[in-house]
Amino acid sequence: MAAALAWIALKSLILILVLLGGFAYIMVFERKLLGWMQYRLGPNRVGPWGLLQPIADGVKMFFKEDLMPRDADPIVFHTAPMIALAVALLAYALIPVAPGWAIASPDAGMLTLLAITSLGVYGIALGGWASQSKYALLGSLRSTAQMVSYELAMGMAALSVMVVAGSVRFADIVDAQAGLWNIVRMPVAFLVFFIAMFAETNRTPFDLPEAEAELVSGYNTEYSGMRFAMFYMAEYVNMITAASLITLLFLGGWRGPWLPPVVWFLLKVVFLLFVFIWVRATLPRLRYDRLMHFGWKVLLPASAANLVAYAAWVALR
Amino acid sequence: MLKAIAKGLGTTLRVLFKPPSTYEYPEKKKPRAARFRGRHELRIYENGLEMCVGCELCQVACPANAITVVAAENDPAAPHSPGERYGYKYQVDLLRCIFCGLCEEACPTDCLHLTQEFELAAFTREAEVYQKDRLLARRPSGYRVPENVYPPYTGRKAAVHA
Fold this sequence. Notes:
The complex is a heterodimer.
Chain A: H1 2-36, H2 53-62, H3 74-92, H4 109-130, H5 134-165, H6 170-175, H7 182-185, H8 187-200, H9 212-215, H10 225-250, H11 261-282, H12 288-316
Helix pairs in contact in A: 1-10, 1-11, 2-10, 3-4, 3-10, 4-5, 5-8, 5-12, 8-10, 8-12, 10-11
Chain B: H1 2-16, E1 40-42, H2 57-61, E2 67-73, E3 85-93, H3 102-106, E4 112-114, E5 129-130, H4 132-135, H5 156-159
């Protein structure tokens, strides 16, 4: 029992280190790619090819003053970034990166994951509310509305995958894609899920919560130092989770010829992260009413129709 | 709409493989034009005499009032310049200078000259006001002393001062 617990603790520690290391290097990867896509070089001052940039950023963040607005609610203000980061890290505990390589693999894995990722909005909503700043409040309200609206479409797209696989376990969902990846079998569900993931992770073109042009910086306006860094880490870890989830549900998970499963999984995740950044370099931010219009009047009906169609197909098969 | 998004994605992907247009400045400097106008320099003749004869025309030509010249009579025994007068004090305030080059054009002896040097940052305002010691060129320019000057040209040895 104690040995099992220690083993889980060790695995969790490794996972957290890998995720935070991943966060640091996705940051460099993103800045480099954005630079290259804009005829620039990207960071190249710290270390060879700018590879030590995250260390410099981390040191800088660490030595910044930890400010709190006078009227802020201290307890909520201080816990909000922790909630955001803890939820983001917790979600990854359920994701298998290779057969059996997960910290927890409950039978209702997919449902548990959806439940945990839904908690992520609390960090943002509470952080914005506790700051006692109109920009932060508006940012967090937008974020809450956006995440709640897009979660429906995302959930239904994921549901059609679960219906076709006949299971909510990740291993079964991946095994069901042995012959044909779900991206080919259900392209509409993939598209809806993919778009909803951009909204869920607050990435461009759906980065309205931190629309720097209108809202200064959204829910994290009043945060500084390590608390600000925690929000950032949460956002990027959520991005890794989103890419892993798309890989599991639509890109055949760890399946692939010749290479070991982990490598395939990593390759697919890195490719998806590249697409996330690529889209950020390309698309402008949506207007808020268009975002809501798109979520409720386009994505939701599309995913609902898609779910009905695949449910009927499974029932009649 | 999807077509437009695809086109945009195509553009960014194409740019990804193009070379960046960045000049990595401190390491690699952009080539400057042959007549680039940078910091001022007072040239000297090949025998070491100053070319400046203290005429103060540069001071008059300067639209920004950046140049101050105080001329003095040459001592015929140990002249600073081959002429009646020389630039006793010569001061260029680079904080005022607009690098127009009119001073260079006004100079009758081709003494004043704008170099290629453009990295002129300093920590104090005083350091940006260049005095004669910093403006005088270190190396002889290759210009020969003209022959019809006063005081008469007395030869290389006598002319070079300490």
